[in-house]
Amino acid sequence: MNIGLDMMGGDYAPLEAVKGVHQYLSASAQPATLFCIGDEQQVQPLLIEHNIPANTIRLIHAPEVIGYHEHPTKALKEKQQSSIAIGFHLLASGKIDAFLSAGNTGAMLVGTMYTIKAIEGVLRPTISTIVPKLNGATGLLLDVGLNADCKPEQLNQFAVLGSLYAQYVLGVDSPKVGLLNVGEEEGKGNLLAQSTYPLLKENATINFVGNVEGRDVFKDKADVMVCDGFTGNVVLKMAESFYDIAVNRQLDNDEYLHRFHYENYGGTPVLGVAKPVIIGHGISNAAAFKNMILVAEKMLQTNFCGIIKHAFMQAV
Amino acid sequence: MNIGLDMMGGDYAPLEAVKGVHQYLSASAQPATLFCIGDEQQVQPLLIEHNIPANTIRLIHAPEVIGYHEHPTKALKEKQQSSIAIGFHLLASGKIDAFLSAGNTGAMLVGTMYTIKAIEGVLRPTISTIVPKLNGATGLLLDVGLNADCKPEQLNQFAVLGSLYAQYVLGVDSPKVGLLNVGEEEGKGNLLAQSTYPLLKENATINFVGNVEGRDVFKDKADVMVCDGFTGNVVLKMAESFYDIAVNRQLDNDEYLHRFHYENYGGTPVLGVAKPVIIGHGISNAAAFKNMILVAEKMLQTNFCGIIKHAFMQAV
């Protein structure tokens, strides 16, 4: 199992990426082979400093870095020697089985779409966010920004992708799927929600429980919550800001609020593409990098992309 | 100034409505004349019990009540002697100048649309919610559910309605108007946001400051935040649930979080209709009722509906 990690992505890279690698290797009995992609001159001394023997990882030199504010398509094209471009090259050629980065999100998405491509039958890949539930469980909300405008058929597919992810990667048995909406009853909502409801209701491959409202997001009503990427992105960023407010007001000692800390989740996989690609938060720290690696490992162990391929072969 | 109050609406009516009337009358030097609409047999003894002399208010008998789960249009038609139906009748005939209720929201909206009607030029009336800002200021988000699907022209009008409300009723000087979106730059967003941005940018009657994201909702970036009613409703209910979570986790002693308590705002006016109609929260307590009356008073004192009429006469 070969996992590629962009050592240069994120505000605190490469230091926190190196620390994350160290945490992962220390905690794992049979670690995957990590392909650490980044500027040798910067990464090598940090590996030594953090007691990561050269033979426990593969250091892949990438002299260039794509910055946060660079135009994704342009940067990927022009910076072929960047850690992100090299990562996708290795992933496409099969030298690595999964690729993760906390770098330029747009470049990661463009790289995924053009290099790895959607699984046959998937109309649009999607990105999700983990939602800490009040009962201690872990929920999933999708789409959170990749698809600002959606069709009902896409939301129906997000439900399948999210449901399988919750089941196989998050370990939720028979995940309850809810449609994020403005009321409880069937028939409520905007045109998209109204047209999506019957599709979800008739979809025999998911456990659809009906509509969920904004007030149910953190409750037990549904494990997987489906919405268009506009609504989901607003919800995600609002939840993040609540956590930031709690931290600023020193309320984050609260056990529940603390679960909102992004580092616990590490990153979001792009669901519906042929190989695991995980996009991390720009402020990723060591724990976040470690958890990103663990998510990739889990996706590979469960053959998650194979499961998705199989599900979509039967036509959704 | 005659303000009509539905004494029977809300989970704790008529008791909390009576207490709210008492609070209002005690605190006001020159109170408006309150038309208290409700079941005499229930309301009269409570008025006596709370030392509200008969001559300080007008008690209007309404033998029927529209329940929470009744179908709005059907109930309004069949229960002509309900407090809500009588309230709209008094408002339409000019016997009262404003009407407020914490009762069946749907019935209040139907009553408003069919009895009071939209101001000429207003495509669709809208409802908003107050947003407590971290800097102590008061923001406004609209639409929060009356219009699940919107056109760019409607969002442009919500911007004007919200801006005037913030200025005249909330007392915000030259309110900054933001478009709720998924990114900062112009061109970001779903088709609705992309098409709305240029309209807001060219609208000389508002102080447009660009896009705001989910993470900016509680920040100082914009005083008035505009979105479709689907997104706004999800945001509103999520914010309410955060407050509930804080209360349950005993974090609501926090000064900022406490400002989320609905009672501080009392209710939401229907913006864009010819007369002030205010819809309260179902769980309204005395303070909420008092604040609803104060909002109505402020709207009448500032001739808010006249200001809207004038603004829309000049074509938005």
From TrEMBL, chains A, B:
Report if keyword Metal-binding is assigned: no
SUPFAM superfamilies per UniProt: Isocitrate/Isopropylmalate dehydrogenase-like
Q: What is its main location?
A: cytoplasm
Its biological purpose: Catalyzes the reversible formation of acyl-phosphate (acyl-PO(4)) from acyl-[acyl-carrier-protein] (acyl-ACP). This enzyme utilizes acyl-ACP as fatty acyl donor, but not acyl-CoA.
State the InterPro entries in the record: FA_synthesis, Phospholipid_synth_PlsX-like
**E.C. code:** 2.3.1.274
Recorded source organism is Ilyomonas limi
MF-aspect GO terms: phosphate:acyl-[acyl carrier protein] acyltransferase activity
| Keyword hit for S-adenosyl-L-methionine | no
Instruction: Write down the chemical reaction(s) this protein catalyses.
Output: a fatty acyl-[ACP] + phosphate = an acyl phosphate + holo-[ACP]
The entry's family comment says: Belongs to the PlsX family.
Record-level GO BP terms: fatty acid biosynthetic process; phospholipid biosynthetic process
Question: What interactions and quaternary structure are annotated?
Answer: Homodimer. Probably interacts with PlsY.
Q: What is this protein called?
A: Phosphate acyltransferase
Q: Which Gene3D superfamilies does this one have? A: Isopropylmalate Dehydrogenase
Q: Which UniProt keywords apply?
A: Acyltransferase, Cytoplasm, Lipid biosynthesis, Lipid metabolism, Phospholipid biosynthesis, Phospholipid metabolism, Transferase
A Pfam family it matches: FA_synthesis
Pathway(s) of this molecule? Lipid metabolism; phospholipid metabolism
GO annotations of cellular component type: cytoplasm
Q: What class of enzyme is it?
A: transferase
Localization of this protein:
Cytoplasm
